[in-house]
Amino acid sequence: MSTPHRFILTLGSNTQAEHHIAYVQKRLFSFGGCRLRCSTPRRSAPVEFPLSSTPFTDVVIVGDTHDELTLFSRKLKELEQEAGRTPEQRATRPEEIPIDIDLITWDEQILKPRDLSRPYLRLGLTELGVELPQVP
Ligand SMILES: Nc1ncnc2c1ncn2[C@@H]1O[C@H](COP(=O)(O)OP(=O)(O)OP(=O)(O)O)[C@@H](O)[C@H]1O
Ligand SMILES: Nc1nc2c(c(=O)[nH]1)N=C(CO)CN2
Description:
It is an enzyme of class 2 (transferase). By secondary structure, this protein is α+β, with helices and mostly antiparallel strands.
């Protein structure tokens, strides 16, 4: 079998966070051929989010999968919608984030450079003993 791809992702929620994060974690664990390790959920003030001052809860997940990037990204987008982040919800209540799934890295690629300095990501990675890929 091919070498698996290694990823780091974050789950963030500012609305019924415990419920939405638990739901998405359970669904992620049911993805075939995907190994995961999760940080403890952490609450913190919103970063770069002018729409609301409600705290976010975030979980950092590291894992590997035999899926290719396009398929894995599509599964995450579908899961986001299944968990309540539908186009309708985004349009009508943009200040509510039931769940935001952000794929931060894929093997050595940084997909979301903007998120790298966020404290919730740093703290979760430290807890998991994982370093970010080095930018050349
Ligand atoms: N500066 C901002 N001003 C207004 N809304 C923002 C701002 N930053 C984030 N948002 C809102 O937060 C949501 C989550 O941001 P994020 O960058 O994760 O985008 P996304 O829509 O989930 O797309 P992606 O697929 O890139 O993750 C956005 O959809 C937007 O509604
Ligand atoms: N603390 C924190 N701040 C954020 C987060 C997040 O998950 N946690 N997500 C955002 C976009 O969805 C914007 N700001």
